[in-house]
TrEMBL record:
Belongs to the pyrroline-5-carboxylate reductase family. It is found in: Cytoplasm. It comes from the Bacteria. One of its GO terms (molecular function) is pyrroline-5-carboxylate reductase activity. It is an enzyme of class 1 (oxidoreductase). It comes from Pseudokineococcus lusitanus. It catalyses: L-proline + NADP(+) = (S)-1-pyrroline-5-carboxylate + NADPH + 2 H(+); L-proline + NAD(+) = (S)-1-pyrroline-5-carboxylate + NADH + 2 H(+). HAMAP family: P5C_reductase. The lineage of its organism: Bacteria, Bacillati, Actinomycetota, Actinomycetes, Kineosporiales. This is Pyrroline-5-carboxylate reductase. GO terms for biological process: L-proline biosynthetic process. NADP(+) binds at residues 18-23, 77-80.
Length: 275
C-alpha cells in the first residue's frame, strides 16, 4: 500500500470493517467522523438485515469478504472465538502491504500475524463503545517492528473515535479490563444511581438527567483540571456532611475492593480469550 501524497494528499487508504457488530459499528462511525468518505469504507457482515442497517445509518456499502479483505486497511471486529475462522477465509484475499487493526480482546499481534500473509502490518487496539459518539478511548499496540507510518495510520484511523493511547502490548489485557470493559462498570453505577434517585423520590427522568450529568461532568472535571480524583473527591466532602455519610456506606460495601476484583477478573479473562 502506498499512501498518497502531493496533489492526492486528501485521498485516504480504503478501509474494510470485517465483522460489524457493536464494536465494528462504533469504530466505523469513528472512521467516518475522522474524515474518511463513506465511499472509501465498506463493511463485511453475514446478515442482510445488518447490511441494511449499516447502509442506512452510515451510508457505507457491505461487500463480500473477498472484496473487503482486499482493502488497504482491515479492521477486524469479530469475537475472539470467531477470529480464526474469519482470518482463515480472509487470508487468501489480504494483500501484502495492507494494515490489519484487530480489536479482538486478548488476541495477540503474534497470533494475528501468524494467520495473515507475510508483509501485512498488524496493530492490536482496544477501543470502547463511546467511540460510537466520538468519545471513546483506544489503547493501541503495534506488532514489534511495525513501520511507524503504518502505526500512525492506525492512530489516525482510530482518532475519530476519541482519544488514542499507546500502550505496550503486554499492557493490553489490563487496558481491556479498565477501558474496554470500563463503560459497563460505569453504566452499572449509573443505573444504580438512577434507581436510587427514584427510590429517594425523584421522577425517573429527573433522576436520569441528574445522574448522567453528574457522571459526564465529573469526568470532564478530572480531564480539564488534571487534578487527582481523590483531591476532587475531598472538595465534594464537607466535614459531617451528606457526602461523607454516603461515602461511608460505599466503603462499608467494599466498592473499592469490588472494582479491583472486577478489573483483575476482566484482565484474566482477556488473557484466556487470547488463547
Ligand atoms: N463490545 C465492546 O464493548 C468491545 C468489544 N471489543 C471486541 O470487539 C469484537 C466484537 O465484539 P462485539 O462488537 O461486542 O461483538 P458483536 O457480536 O456485536 O460483533 C461481532 C460481529 O461479527 C460478525 N461476524 C462474526 N463472524 C463473521 C464473519 N465470518 N463474517 C462477517 N461477520 C462476522 C457478527 O455477525 P452476526 O451478527 O451475524 O453474528 C457480529 O456482527 C470482539 O473481539 C471484542 O473483544 C473490543 C472493545 C470493546
Ligand atoms: O466483554 C468483552 O469481552 C469485550 C471486550 C471489551 C469489552 N467488551
Amino acid at each position: 500500500m502506498t499512501e498518497p501524497d502531493g496533489a492526492a494528499a486528501s485521498a485516504r487508504p480504503s478501509v474494510a470493517v470485517l465483522g460489524a457488530g457493536t464494536m465494528g459499528e462504533a469504530v466505523l462511525a469513528g472512521v467516518l467522523r475522522g474524515g474518511w468518505a463513506a465511499e472509501d469504507v465498506v463493511a463485511v457482515v453475514r446478515r442482510p438485515e445488518r447490511a441494511a442497517e449499516l447502509e442506512e445509518r452510515h451510508g457505507v456499502r457491505c461487500v463480500p469478504l473477498a472484496e473487503g479483505a482486499a482493502r488497504d486497511v482491515l479492521v477486524v471486529a469479530v469475537k475472539p472465538q470467531q477470529l480464526d475462522a474469519l482470518l482463515a477465509d480472509a487470508a487468501a484475499h489480504v494483500r501484502p502491504g495492507s494494515l490489519v487493526v484487530s480489536v479482538a480482546a486478548g488476541v495477540t499481534t503474534a497470533r494475528l500475524a501468524a494467520a495473515l500473509p507475510d508483509g501485512v502490518a498488524v496493530v492490536r487496539a482496544m477501543p470502547n463503545t463511546p467511540a460510537l459518539v466520538g468519545e471513546g478511548v483506544t489503547a493501541l499496540s503495534p506488532a514489534p517492528g511495525t513501520d511507524p507510518a503504518r502505526v500512525d495510520l492506525a492512530r489516525r484511523l482510530l482518532a475519530g473515535a476519541g482519544d488514542v493511547v499507546d500502550v505496550p502490548e503486554a499492557s493490553q489485557d489490563a487496558a481491556t479490563a479498565v477501558s474496554g470493559s470500563g463503560p459497563a462498570y460505569v453504566l452499572l453505577v449509573l443505573e444504580a444511581l438512577v434507581e436510587a434517585g427514584v427510590h429517594a423520590g425523584l421522577p425517573r427522568a429527573t433522576a436520569s438527567r441528574l445522574a448522567t450529568g453528574t457522571l459526564a461532568g465529573t469526568a470532564a472535571l478530572v480531564q480539564r483540571t488534571g487534578e487527582h480524583p481523590s483531591l476532587l473527591r475531598e472538595k465534594v466532602t464537607s466535614p459531617g456532611g451528606t457526602t461523607a455519610a454516603g461515602l461511608r456506606k460505599l466503603d462499608d460495601a467494599g466498592v473499592r475492593a469490588a472494582v479491583l476484583a472486577a478489573v483483575e477478573a476482566a484482565r484474566d479473562r482477556s488473557r484466556a480469550l487470547g488463547g
